[in-house]
Each structure stands twice: as C-alpha cells, then as structure tokens.
Amino acid sequence: MKILIFSRYDFSQASTRVRFLQYFPFLKEEGFDVQIFPIIKNNGISGRKNIFFLVQSRLKSFYRVGKRLFMEKGKKTLILIHTELFPFLPFWLEYGYMLLLGKRNYVIEFDDAWFHRYDANKSWLVRMCLGRKIYSLMRHSVLVIAGNQYIADHAKFSGAKHVEIIPTVVDFEKYKRYLLVSKEKQTISSTSLEITQLKDPSFHKNRPIIGWIGSPATTKFLVDIKNVIKWFDHYEIANFVAFGADPNQLKDLPIKVIPWQEHLELEILYQFDIGIMPLTDSLFERGKCGYKLIQYMACGLPVVASPVGVNKSIVVPNETGYFASTDEDWIKYLTALSNNFDLRKRLGTNGQTRAEIYYSLKAITPKYLSIIKASLDSVLS
Known about the structure:
Elements: E1 2-9, H1 14-19, H2 24-29, E2 33-40, H3 42-46, H4 51-70, E3 77-82, H5 91-100, E4 106-110, H6 116-119, H7 124-130, H8 133-140, E5 143-146, H9 149-158, E6 163-165, H10 172-184, H11 193-199, H12 201-204, E7 209-213, H13 220-223, H14 226-234, E8 239-243, E9 255-258, H15 265-269, E10 274-277, H16 291-298, E11 303-305, H17 311-314, E12 321-323, H18 327-338, H19 341-358, H20 361-380
Parallel strand pairs: 1-2, 1-3, 3-4, 4-5, 5-6, 7-8, 7-10, 8-9, 10-11, 11-12
C-alpha cells in the first residue's frame, strides 16, 4: 500500500523531519511504500520577504503539487496532507481538485495552529475568503492528526469525523547513542569551531550556559526577554547561546548565536546547562507543540518556559523546570538554576524520564502506526 505525504516544507525544516521522516522506517517495516513531497521548498521559505519571489514560488508550488497529485488519480494511495495543499487558495478549489481526482478520503495533520493564519489574519479580505478553509479541510478529512490538545479541540469544533493527538517526539534512542559515543570520544577535541568556542573557558568563564534552539522566524521570542539576557550578562551569572536564531535580531544583545546545522544539533544541545522556551500568549503560539522543550528534556536539561499552550502540559513545575511569565520570573528561576548544580541535575533527570515515557519515538510509534492503518481502510473501501 502506498502512502504519499504532502509535507508543508522540505527536509530542511524540523517539522518535516520529526513529524514524518522519522516514522518512515517503521512504516516501511509494515510493508508500506512511503513517499514524501514538499509543498514549499527551502528557497520558497527564505525568499518570502520579496513579494515578487513569493508569488512566483507559490505559483510554481501550485503547479508542482497539482501535477504530483494528478499522478495518483485512480490509484489506491493514502494521501496525508500537512496543513494544506495550496496555501492561500480557497477551500472549494483545493477540495474540488481532490474530488476530481477521487481523493476524498485523505488524512490531514497539524503541528501548528495554521487555521489562525487565516481566521486571525490582519487582512479582512483573507479572513473573509480563507477564514474557514482549514476548518473545512478538517471536517471533510477521514482523520485529523493533531500535535496537541489545542489543535485537537479546534478540529473537533470544525466537525472532523476522527481526531487523534500525536505529540511531536524525539528519537530517544538516538540521544542515548550520541551520549554513549561522545563518552567514548571524550578525549578527542571537536573539529567544530562552534563547539570548540563553547568549551573554551574564555567564553563560558565557568558560568552555566542558558541555551535556546529555534529558527530565524522564532527569534522574536528571545528578543521579548532581552532585559533578562542583559541582566545576566551584567551580573556575570550565566551565558546565553542561541542555536539557529537570526543574528540580526540579536545583534545588540550579549548572546552567542550559532547557525543551525543538523549534524551539530545534539552536540550543541549537550553543551547547554539550562534550556529555555519563551513565547508570547497569542493564538498561533497556543498551538505550538513544544518541540524544543522536549529536546532539552531528552538531553537531561532543566527547562524554563512561558506557560503558553502545550508548554503547560510538558513542563511539571518544580519537578522538570519552571514557568516564567515576567522578567522577574525569568530572572528568579534562571538564577536559581544557574547557581545550583544539584537542582539542575535533579530537574534534568526528572525531565529526561518524562520525555522518554511521553515524548519519545518508541512510545508513540505504535499509536501512530495504528491510526495510519485504520485510515487505509477508508481508502481501500
């Protein structure tokens, strides 16, 4: 049986790798022919600020996706859509095209509250024309895979027939393997300039490293706690490191920015002493899946996060980390963790156990395979 996944982005984006790619080996073991087709390529993401390039890339995307879907006409293929096939085109056009090709039984997946990109858009025209699009796509699907309860609740509100929650997870075994290998090679100096700099006493000065991992698009949340970052630098309590951030947004802050590279991800994360996830309490952010928190916890790090959306169910206060809503909160909890190694160790160990039980690939894969198999029945019927 064939499964064709239309991922919103290509493999350069974490959502594609963790929501789809890491399940491929398990699906193939079950005898499925799994293929992935990115709706928006990496150059279509990086060029979004140029309106001409944006329109051009989207038109190319519509053609590519339409052509690829047409190739499945008349075939018993399970179509899994990551958010939508044709961004900013109306529901009737997208769904009508699928009906034309006989693909009414599709699965749709959300790891962000993409419906708010339309129903809460600043443009009244977008709200009027597209405000109900995602809800309509969910209602007509055979299954909605939601990354958290917030998304699941909106899917149920839309009238979706079947909704299942699959959290964003980490391959915990991969983290264990990395630790094992790194211990065996602990006498070998890293060839990575970034890692070498983080280990250099002239940089860390025996201060704990407060780390953040993300993307240029989410760097704005670090800017929101700029006074906290400056406070820690002024009192020389801890150093801040941002992995994958936009350096231009942080150029006036005492924070080391390291460009994101996939092969360095675990090595960088394991240099952190504390992991943070600041967020604004807005509609779209309430639908986030807290992936960076799960990564920190899998590395045995204590966490401090904004009490927004799924963060409130991932973090257990005083057991795996803390919640911070104000600058005073951030300073209070980060200072406590920076000054107390034993506290960091206890919370980090608790978080690692929680991540393995609730947010690991091994724990979630059986459920994922079960709901995918159930969805295939609707295609074959």
